[in-house]
Amino acid sequence: MLFLLFQLGEDRYALSAGDVVVVLPLLRIKQIPQSPPGVLGVCNYHGSPVPVIDLSVLALGTPARARFSTRLVLVRYPDAAGASRLLGLIAEKATETLRRNPTDFVPAGVANDHAPYLGPVAADARGLVQWIHVERLLPAAVRDVLFREPLAV
Question: CA–CA separation, 19 vs 75, rounded Å?
Fold first, then answer.
């Protein structure tokens, strides 16, 4: 199975490539005032607005650094009805892939109810990599804010 690697702080994480639609350079993000923490706003992808979150803010409480290797990763995210929606993720050092068997990932040994998206870990020569489950990234309240249909004007 193929994974996209990225970093949060000094630690490595992986997204299933099957969840990834496209990896883009940082695009202009239109901020949305009073958005929930971690929600940067929306970007334009082929004429459609896509909500964008900063994984670093979501996980660590600090914004991702605008490095040459910081990317906007568009993923398929299930909304409340189960439909697949595009969600943009700001991720640092998102320039590498990893091919591993899913069974190489084992439970981390630490349960974290505040971060249900943290999955199992796999070891390699550089240390541990933790699998991020896209479908568990957002609390229901944030998901509902991002994917709720706007009121008619």
Answer: 5
User: What per-residue confidence (pLDDT) applies to 153?
Assistant: 56
Token pair 């202009």 in the structure block, residue: 28
* Whether 88 contacts 74, CB under 8 Å: yes
CA-to-CA distance for 118 and 13, rounded, in angstroms?
Answer: 9
- Taking the C-alpha atoms of residue 99 and residue 44, their distance in angstroms, rounded to an integer, is 31
- What distance lies between CA 56 and its chain's CA centroid? 9
- Cβ atoms of 118 and 128 within 8 Å: the answer is no
Distance CA 41, CA 35 (A): 7
Amino acid type, 135 = E
For 140, phi then psi, to 5°, come to -55, -40
d(CA 117, CA 119): 6
The mean of the pLDDT values for the chain is 91
pLDDT over 80 at 151, yes or no: no
Which of 9-18, 29-38, 42-51, 120-129 is least confident? 29-38
